[in-house]
Structures are given as C-alpha cells and as structure tokens.
Amino acid sequence: MPWLKMVDPSTVSGYVKEVFDGFVQRRGKVPSLSQVLANRPEVLRGRETLRNAVSDGATTLGLRREEMLNYFGSMMGQCTG
C-alpha cells in the first residue's frame, strides 16, 4: 500500500484536469508522480512549468538530446515508470 495519496484522475477539475487530460492524450495515462503532486495543485503547476521549459524540444539542445539527458538522469536516480 502506497503511503503517498494519489489523486484519482476521474475526480479532478480545473487546472489539474487540463494537465491530466494532456497526459492521457500524449501518453495514454497519467503518471503516478503527477497524481501525487495533484494533492497540491500549486506544486503540480510548478513541476509542469519546469517540465514544459526543459522538454519536448523547448530548449536549444533539440528533442533528441533532451530525451537522452532525461533518460540519463532517470537512470542515475534509479527512477522507474
């Protein structure tokens, strides 16, 4: 049983719903981290602002390099799913 409460995507509204709908459209599901951060919408907003600024081709690195750096960072942090 997880000790962090995850917000059920079917119960959200407003900004959180917009974010969740975007994830479902792009990935087919809402990541667990975003479901946890949705407990504090202001934290989710900050995380999304950062993610949008450094991913999806938003930097001068280009999409391929961004993805490689994200992958490397995840591996170094032993992140899963």
Salient structural properties:
single chain; 81 residues; mainly alpha; 0% strand; globular
Would you mind describing this structure in some detail?
With 81 residues, the protein is mostly helical. The protein has 4 helices and no strands. The protein has one domain. It has helices at 14-27, 32-37, 41-54, 63-76.
Summarize the structure.
With 81 residues, the chain is mainly alpha-helical.
Unreliable residue stretches: none
Structural class: mainly alpha
Strand fraction equals: under 5%
From the spread of the alpha carbons, the general shape counts as globular
Number of helices: 4
Report the order of strands and helices: HHHH
> How confident overall, as mean pLDDT?
88
Give the termini distance in whole angstroms: 17 Å
CA-based gyration radius: 14 Å
Q: How many E-type strands?
A: 0
The helix content, as a percent range, equals 55-70%
Main β-sheet, in a few words? Answer: none
Task: Work out the count of structural domains.
Answer: 1
Structural topology:
Layout (H helix, E strand, L loop, with lengths): L13 H14 L4 H6 L3 H14 L8 H14 L5
